[in-house]
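Hey, quick one: can you model this chain's 3D structure?
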Amino acid sequence: MKTIKLTIGICSLALLFASCKDEKAEMAKQNVQEYTNYVDSVATLEYAKAYSNWESIENGYNNHKSIASVTINDTEEKATLQENLDDATLKYETYKTTLLAEKEKEDIRTSKSNFRKTLLGPNYNDSGDMAFEWINKDNILNVYQTFVNTVQTNKDSYSREDWDEIKLLYEAIDTRKNTVENQGLTSSDNRQIAALKLKFAPMYTVNRMGAKSEENAAAKE
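Sure thing. Here's the predicted structure for all 221 residues.
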């Protein structure tokens, strides 16, 4: 009788152990699947929407990955589950790299647009080209005044790259002026613009050279 009871007890323990292993395996599979599903859902988000919620997304990602990574250690299918986990991780990291690269590009575009608006005034229209068709005979004098005065105020803080951008904008304004003159630009406005151009030319030359010299000196340190 004791032998029978002992046998039954051993069998019960074996079944319990097997049952626990099965439960752990199922839990591990479920956690890895939930992690994979989470990554798939994130990777379909538009970059702007994802970046605006990135802290929450990262927290969710780290939580799902942590749970999945821990539970696969207790299963015989660890190798297969680890491969699935690694695939999802690679997909997430690839998406994240692309997202951050796009954000950096957007930051650069925004910074450049703000820089131009400071120089050209509130009417500046960032149309993506340098045609400056928003400049006309009625506002071109104000554009020149805003541009030259802003450069004069901030000339000591501009880098060599800033001066290169300033030159690019200045030449675009001048090109637009040739068109605007045919629209009936007044003699008074033309004279004032000429005076502003005379003011700008030496200011640009001196300060651009200074910025380049400072950059070269910093590179040698």
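One thing worth noting: DSSP finds seven helices and no strands in the chain.
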